[in-house]
Amino acid sequence: MIQNNIIDLRSDTVTKPSKEMREVIASAPVGDDQFGEDPTINLLQEKIAGMLGKEAALWMATGTMANQVALRTLTNPGDDVIVSRESHAVWHETGAAAANSGVQFTEIGSNGIFSVDDFLSSIKPAGHIILPPTTLVQIENTHNRSGGIVFPSDEAAKICAAAKKINISAYLDGARLWNAAVAENKTVKELAEPFDLVSVAFSKGLGAPGGSMLAGNKEIINKALRYRRMSGGAMRQVGLFAAACIYAVDNNFKRLEQDHINAGIIAGRLAESDRVVIDAKSVKTNIIVFSLTEDAPDAPFVVERAKEKGVLIFAFGSKTIRAVTHLDVTEEMCKKAADILLNIIGAEYS
Ligand SMILES: *Cc1c(COP(=O)(O)O)cnc(C)c1O
Predict the structure, then answer these.
(1) Residues 20-57: pLDDT tens digits?
(2) Mutate to test the pocket of ligand 1, among 10, 59, 88 (most ligand atoms within 8 A of CB)
(3) Which terminus of the chain is more solvent-facing, meaning fewer CB atoms within 10 Å of its CB: N or C?
(4) ∠ CA 223-227-233, rounded to 5°
């Protein structure tokens, strides 16, 4: 639903349920999920477990809850968790990992990715009298703060295989795994295969009003069930959400391709400005992160001016901006937004 001609590129979470999605929500059969009696959530859990090639899947209210429950499930307090630099778990969860699971993070690699060698040289072994044991490696695919970067699947497989050999669990923060799969022309199952536990979100590019899921073997998912309840995340007639999520997977997954094309158009246009630093070719999914040169206006200034012109974007830092394409912005709107941004960035200002 596009309102007031505003082009909202702040996030792919701003999408509103379409008329059709609202209809499936309205007619969804539901029950109390704490009795296992909600047929629609059961259907979604089976569907997602199947798509991800895992034994079981479990509803989570948000992606942050999925990440937090995953950490509780796969670590013990005092453990070390290896993650990519600037991962969601470190930057965007208000310190929850330290508060809830008592773990510390070691951030490695660059640009959202790391190699198996980076991983192996960062591990702290178990049983050492001084070092905190590394018990989990976490990969974020696609990587949000690095501009929707797709984690190379060969390297992910090598990292998970190396981790398994030394009893380190592997978790995939796949909030935008759908985008990675479309960009790589792979199935989500292929991308999820090497990991013990995987999360996916329905509230990002797929356009559902909320919800995420964890998928793994039955033993891990049973543990996660307890920590979900502990987090206050055990819901009741959650089939209303599940109906929207089933609709989202069936109708809005393959079309992510268009979001990626639109992001490429914006990135390509922005790259024309010598006040913008961006590697347009690296934009393969729906997130565009770009920097402004010294002589360009600051990010908050650009964000404010863009808002006056009806384009909403997000300042990631004093000179860094993020824009995200999604199903509520058309190719035409993205072209228009790029022109407006180029005008603001290129103009004289004081
Ligand atoms: C958005 C996001 C999350 C968190 O999802 P919420 O539903 O907003 O809590 C986790 N990981 C990544 C990579 C994300 O982009």
Answers:
(1) 999 999 999 999 999 999 999 999 999 999 999 999 99
(2) 88
(3) C
(4) 130
